[in-house]
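Minutes, project check-in

Agenda point 3 was the complex the collaborators sent over. CS summarized: two entities, 228 residues total, and the question is how they sit relative to each other. Sequences were read into the notes so everyone works from the same version.
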Amino acid sequence: QSALTQPASVSGSPGQSITISCTGTSSDVGGYNYVSWYQQYPGKAPKLMIYEVSNRPSGVSNRFSGSKSGNTASLTISGLQAEDEADYYCSSYTTRITVLFGGGTRLTVL
Amino acid sequence: EVQLVESGGGLVQPGGSLTLSCAASGFPFSSYAMHWVRQPPGKGLEYVSTITGNGGTTYYAESVKGRFTISRDNSKNTLYLQMGSLRAEDMAVYYCARRRSTYFYDYWGQGTLVTVSS
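CS then shared the predicted structure for the full assembly.
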């Protein structure tokens, strides 16, 4: 089972917006609105940032937003801040294995 | 406050066995499916296994099927992962996570490191 496809790295300057893509297939990302996104700092556990494609948990900044088109989901972070520098992972329900993760994207704030 | 606390990680030889535990508190444990997710050093997250709230149904990633067994004791609010025939590629930080009905994880433990080496 191949992981969902994410760019290995993205970067942006403070105040800018960046988008991280997550590409799967019709058996996972494209077939269900069960895409979630997680932020992970080095040595720490992942933290839920977006669930069900575009919903934000309580306490997560509204600078984080999610969307989906076809087999590709996206996480957008607007008004970049230094504290956003972290690894980001997408995840999707899939009938074949129940949950599939992306390979992860390292966000660098320049 | 929801808390998930893993334990049981450590150094094990290839071919050996290890059992991880995840102690849950702050929520009705038996009402939630639970997952194990692992992360090899310097790599991404990987789904390992699922168990439903009543423990009646389990699922496994192909990479661990037949070698790992997930279980839970709802009277003790504890999740387990019995790992056997361990390989170098099983070396990772293992997280337990609470799964919601639409397949996202709203709470994670802090992780426990499993090192497979001779």
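Noted in discussion: The longest strand of chain B covers residues 18-25.
Follow-up: revisit at the next meeting once the mutant set is ready.
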